[in-house]
Amino acid sequence: MKYLDEFRDPVFAKTLSENIHKVTTRPWTIMEICGGQTHSIVKSGLENLLPSSLSIVHGPGCPVCVTPLEMIEKAIIIARKPNVIFTSFGDMLRVPGSTSDLLTVKANGGDVRIVYSPLDAVTIAEKNPDKEVVFFAVGFETTAPANAMAVWQAHKKNLKNFSILCSHVLVPPAMEALLSSSTNRVQGFLAAGHVCTVMGYEEYIPLAKKYNVPIVVTGFEPTDILHGILMLVTQLEEGRCELENQYSRMVKKEGNIPAQQMIFNVFEISNRKWRGIGEIPKSGYSLKKEFMHFDAEEKFSLGIVTVEESPLCIAGNILRGLNKPFECSAFGNQCTPESPLGAPMVSSEGACAAYYNYKRQNVAASGSGLVNKKH
Amino acid sequence: MANDISQGLSCPVPMNDYPTIVLAHGGGGKLTHQLIERVFKKHFSNPDLDLMHDGAMVTVDAGRIAMSTDSYVVSPIIFPGGNIGELAVNGTVNDIAMCGAQPKYLSASFIIEEGLSMAELETIVASMALSAKKAGVSIVTGDTKVVPRGKADKVFITTSGVGTIPEGRSIHPSRIKAGDAIIISGTIGDHGMAVMSVREGLEFESEIRSDTCALNGLVEEMYRVSPEIHFLRDPTRGGVASTMNEIAASAQKGIRLYEKSIPANENVRSACEILGFDPLYVANEGKLIAIVSSSESAKVLSAMKKHPAGTESAIIGEVTDDHPSVVVLQTAIGGERVVDMISGEQLPRIC
Amino acid sequence: MCLAIPGRIEFIDAASNPKMAKVNFGGIIKNVCLDFLPEAGMHDYVLVHVGVALTKVDEKEALETIELFKQMGDALDELKEGDPA
After folding, report:
1. Among A131, A213, B31, B56, which residue carries the largest CB count within 10 Å?
2. How many whole angstroms separate alpha carbon B244 and alpha carbon A25?
3. How far is A365 from chain C (nearest CA, A)?
4. Please, is A311 exposed, middle or buried when counting C-beta atoms within 10 Å of its C-beta (0-12, 13-18, 19+)?
5. Same domain for B331 and B194?
6. Domain segments of chain C: what residues?
7. Residue A373 covered by a domain
């Protein structure tokens, strides 16, 4: 595919890898915020191409991982209701709540449907006027324009049977929460290119300044990520702390203004709880007052749902890069990808799940010279 | 007058030509008989089946036989490039062929949800007959049950089959040796993505077609050039990744795959990009993986490429004594990763 | 966090609201909302996430990035040629 294949060229990857090896003289800890980039790193096996002195920390940028347990629980409560069609992106269906998940609700007769786009959920609402159609609106800034558009369309079409369960989160406040922690180890960030296609990158400039940390807006193809790492390490080695844009073919400084306008037509900034991290001020979107009738929490009068994370889980420390997954007492015992206790074991790209597979590989491959991975 | 009475006794007059399957089609009475005559026997007819006995009595060569059974459920039942009937015949034919056997006879059992249109059923049965003919097998016995609406999803088909294993052939994990070549018979992911393209809520327009086809002819061609075929599997559910993991575990060997050698159609790759799928985990219904001694691999590969079911065959990896039971992929970009078993089916991702 | 793929606009339904287009992703055609890219036209490449086009691919920038990768490779090659080992 055009604009993908060119950025998967093994010759370019080798060039970039050699350059990274050349510029790296010291150990550095860098974080890719975005789960999509984590996926690309894992899928392409990029860590084998990096110097062992570079420590790549997988950040909290996976909407599946960070959606708080209470929201999963609320989704399950709504999806179990007899007159509801509950719609969601596919990857949310497997995320465990405290006792169940959406796939199990579906198995027990709940009408749970996977949609490709939130606009499809609006169409389902139009076609099923006698049913309540709820969309699980999770995601970062990238997904916000689509979710806002869905609410906007429902509003314009005067649909009374459509609502969203909103759990939107924002990248810069999460980065700031990590950076302002006294235990922060992260020395440089790959910022999420697709978030920046919507929001631009101006809000990262003060972060780089305030915390003396280089930030490189980076794309998702393997050579994009290697290029982003090269730019980041170069800055670190030269003692620079600037905002740079690796993903210039997609990201403009100001982002996509009409998309931002749509977001702020419908949403306002609010406090949000992140699974594994806790509440971060002003780190998410909620529906504005005038759109409250599209809020599923209001519509179904859910009130406060309290659920406890497993006390064994140290996900917060892992997402901050403070602990390695194998330092957790539950790792690989009570907590596995099949029955996860915490966020980073949920998604296949979560740090714990990645380690779980790595451990398997390490044991199996010991002595073979196969493994040259580190986290 | 007598006529009137008899009509009155059996009132209401039973219909003869139902446009859809009703419960009575599975009741064992007239309608069942009619369904068998007008649909199943019409298409499957052969001397062994036409006896209409409780079971089929058939003759095979003396020696070892292979048996297999599989149930087929797919939604929708008719998809680009095929339907559930073709899957049911080709699937069991292939399972037998993967034993190094020559498939001979099949049974076919139908669980039909009432309300299935007669036309759809006949389309499915007709393509089963055609697939059986192409594969050179006979459907010699069968069964039909009808269940109330909502108790099944249109139609479920179970096929079983037997085949004979010619002297000198042996498919066993213990024959898999370090250095053996891993060959695939063509592009991956076509079936899974063809079905996905018509799945409600995720539809897209494309030219992707299911690859469903019988592989017994291809297997015969491979054996014609070499006896050194150590293992055969068809990577159906769970795709190439799951099959390779199963092979690695049963043989206690490591497997190395080369991503850039694994053939896939561009539109299948693209569909996987959009939905966030890994084509290594997507189902195939007309492909086989062969593990062949390295000295014979070129000969086997060239024979496969000449067969219509294997034109895009390729060597995609090798067996190693390193990392037993682990499958490692050398990625196209030059990295390495472990290819694990998947838990559950792939779901479209947003991240 | 966000799976987004570039594709080529093949048809724009001017009458639709929101504005919808058919976008071709390497042989796969999907309906995509074009409302946030008023400047996008036929045959433009756009980056699509969950059925919504978010940005127009800047071809000039893409080519410049590729050119940069090539130059880096050439520089490495020269270095290696100059290396007696």
Report:
1. A213
2. 40
3. 31
4. exposed
5. yes
6. 5-81
7. no
Q: Give the integer Cα–Cα distance in Å for B252 and B258.
A: 20
Contact A359, A337 (CB under 8 A): no
**Are residues B180 and B108 both part of a single domain?**
no
> Which residues share a beta bridge with A243?
A215
- Position C1 pLDDT exceeds 70: no
| Distance, first Cα to last Cα, chain A | 31
Q: Which residue of C has its CA nearest to B194?
A: C28
Please indicate, yes or no, if residue A371 is contained in any of the structural domains.
no
Q: What is the distance between the alpha carbons of residues A44 and A250, in angstroms, rounded to a whole number? A: 22
Q: Helices B84-97 and B118-135, interaxial angle, to 10°?
A: 30
Residue B102 vs residues A10, A60, B60, B136, B307: alpha-carbon distances, Å: 43, 54, 11, 9, 17
Q: Let me know whether B158 and B193 are in one domain.
A: no
Tell me which amino acid residue A166 is: C
Structure tokens at A362: 């390490």
What is the structure's pLDDT at A64? Answer: 81
Check CB contact under 8 Å for A361 and B322: no
Which residue of C51, C54, C64 is in closest CB contact with A119? C51
Contact across the interface for A62 and B351, Cβ inside 8 Å: yes
* ipTM, 2 dp: 0.94
Give the C-alpha separation, B28 to B35, whole Å: 10
Q: Which amino acid is at B274?
A: I
Domain boundary among A308, A326, A342: A308
Share of chain A above pLDDT 90, in %: 67
CATH (domain of B115) = 3.30.1330.10
Yes or no: say if B332 and A11 are a contact pair by the CB < 8 Å rule: no
**pLDDT tens digit sequence for A219-277:** 999 999 999 999 999 999 999 999 999 999 999 999 999 999 999 999 999 999 998 78
Please identify, among A308, A335, A355, the residue that sits at the C-terminal boundary of a domain. A308
Mean pLDDT of chain C: 93
Instruction: Choose the CATH number for C5-81 among 2.60.120.10, 1.10.1740.110, 2.30.30.140, 3.10.450.50.
Output: 2.30.30.140
Q: State pLDDT tens for residues A269-312.
A: 999 999 878 899 999 999 999 999 999 999 999 988 888 778 88
- Kindly report the three-state secondary structure assignment for every residue of chain C: CCCCEEEEEEEEECCCCCCEEEEEECCEEEEEECCCCCCCCCCCEEEEECCEEEEECCHHHHHHHHHHHHHHHHHHHHHHHCCCC
CB contact under 8 A, B267 and C2: no
CATH number of the CATH domain containing A47: 3.40.50.11740
